[in-house]
Amino acid sequence: xxxxxxxxxxxxxxxxxxxxxxDFEIKSSIKKATLHASCLGIYKATLNGERLGGQVLTPGLTxxxxxxxxxxxxxxxxxxxxxxxxxxxxxxxxxxxxxxxGKYHPWGNSVEAVAELExxxxxxxxxxxxxxxxxxxxxxxxxxxxxxxGETVDKTADIKCLGNAIPAKSFPLVPQIGADIVENEILSPxxxxxxxxxxxxxxxxxxxxxxxxxxxxxxxxxxxxLSFGEVLDKDGNFYNENYRKAAEPVIYVLSGEExxxxxxxxxxxxxxxxxxxxxxxxxxxxxxxxxxxxxKMERTGYFTCGNDRINQLYSNIIWGQKGNYLDIPxxxxxxxxxxxxxxxxxxxxxxxxxxxxxRQFFKKWLGDLRAEQRSNGAVLGVCPExxxxxxxxxxxxxxxxxxxxxxxxxxxxxxxxxxxxxNFEMMKKWVEYVRGVGDEEYLWLTGYHYGDWLAMxxxxxxxxxxxxxxxxxxxxxxxxxxxxxxxxxxxxQDMSEYEELYKNIVKRFREYFMENGMPxxxxxxxxxxxxxxxxxxxxxxxxxxxxxxxxxxxxxxxxPEERETLAxxxxxxxxxFDGRMSTGFLGTPYILHALSECGKHDVAYNLFFQNKNPxxxxxxxxxxxxxxxHWNGIKEDGSFWSVNMNSFNHYAYGCVAEWMYxxxxxxxxxxxxxxxIRLAPVPDKRLGFAKCAIETISGxxxxxxxxxxxxxxxxxxxxxxxxxDIALPNGFCQTVTQGKHTFCLHLLNENTNDFCL
Length: 757
Ligand code: BGC
Hints:
Strand content: 25-35%
Bound molecules: beta-D-glucopyranose
Structural class: alpha+beta
Oligomer: single chain
Radius of gyration: 27 Å
Largest sheet: 10 strands, mixed
């Protein structure tokens, strides 16, 4: 894009969409016409009334102060002699309300547009039509739009010219990097419910992210007003208090003719839609559709088994990803948050990258993470961030570590070194940041942390679990340093300094947090928790918790000879907690791995099948169609967790899918990009059978096992060029290459689960 003239309206209209319009004539014959366009806000571009491109919510969300993407459209075929080019811009993330307290105008006070139409004539000469003060600004039928506060489309609105555009502040522009944001699926309503309160509620059967479209013919000025909710309350009534301030409706004002409506500059997270206003007594369900919107990602991972509830859990994980991979990895898509929480992103990243091809999606977001890394190496809780909110700008273990964990994970899955090369400086700087905070070079004992967020071992109303935050922070410090070392080796760098650092962190970790091969039970309480998120624990934090031991085992912070006792202790803690998990955001991703890596598959499976709160199946048994933020978002008695933090579409705990692919079906990466793999499934009778297929960059890998009478049949498909080490539970090992490989094990003893080939 050659010239970058940003324009805005001579008059601001709070919260409204404005249309920047240029009429022009083409006199010579044009060989190729390309429009480059962008905005501050969210825009829709039309040429001669035709909407351009297949994308929605352009130009997406980036750290706008550093870069805004522009999109390019081939418009050669739409161009005629007399043309009208329109760029309609809504407030979107940049100008409307966005941020944890719904900050207004986070990146700018008014919407802006920028465009350039590049015209290549038949004779090879090139001319340009660019945004400038000859463009006119009009009001729009979208009289109000906001990411959090819905949209009002008024087909009867009086469209006025506000005058000529005026110059506006420039923002750095870059060509589109991220995956297209598109309308991916369309769902029909499954039912119209009349609730006990007498309200009319449409059930789409699935919690999604996107919007509701409506085809309708009514009288001019008739209104349809839609409110959105994820769940019904225990009496079956509509509920959306958990949206906090983002519970504002979408309003459609009818023209009197056949109308088609859908929001253009915002989206909602919902399963249920309440008809607050509707012009007829009988609801025509056929006019309503739910349109699923997310970044374009090709599906690559598939899992199915003989247990319907586990299949539902898996479906919830997939929908959690669809709902929260809308241009950036968000925590949730419904309440006044929808932020790029770095912790959530790293927790779910491996699962996400097996489920879908997320390379392009993360290329862009990692660029934002790099751009927003502070000069001292700090990586914040949220990215993109421009609200200077104390809550989002915390520098926390498990959140900032997104800087190391995500690039490494993407490299491992896709064997794409550019994820390491582009992010290596960020990874190192993050570790250097941790190294430099506080007085202890090899421990991380200072700062605000989110801790083992939402863990269940510090009391019902606590946001932070009981595990020592210092222990968690230092464990992640070790892990990130280890990943920096590994990344450096892949990039051919001398990593001796970081190898030394890693050894020292592990040494100090063991001295400070452990004794006799076990974490110390009581640890000093050094972190400060901000008001409102106070954990109900004594002035000390515990070392012997499920999360602490899972981290120690999975991050390898113990000696090999200590593993068995630690694993026993972990099992004991689970047993003493009534066979349940007490882990939060930072322990949950690792607990099943920690158990399985120590051969405690039975305990891992018991947790996996657990349905008492907290557990994965608890939400499934309570009707979930996506993953919940709280294990018990809906409590046993049908009441809800606190209104201020209770999302029913929060993908983080969906990270269990990586254990389903990697342990249940046993597909494990030995060499990046699945060039060499281990196929070591762990069958369990309660599943009946399990099957996964992964479209890797090395080809399609399949793993299947099935219990039948006294036999287990295994079937593996290994693609050309991949070497697979098969390891079956009875100790049988074989290295194989391309082809289908089938094995049958016969049960020798029902009680011991011993098999022979
Ligand atoms: C978000 C989380 C996030 C957390 C930080 C919440 O408001 O929804 O998912 O990671 O804050 O602890």
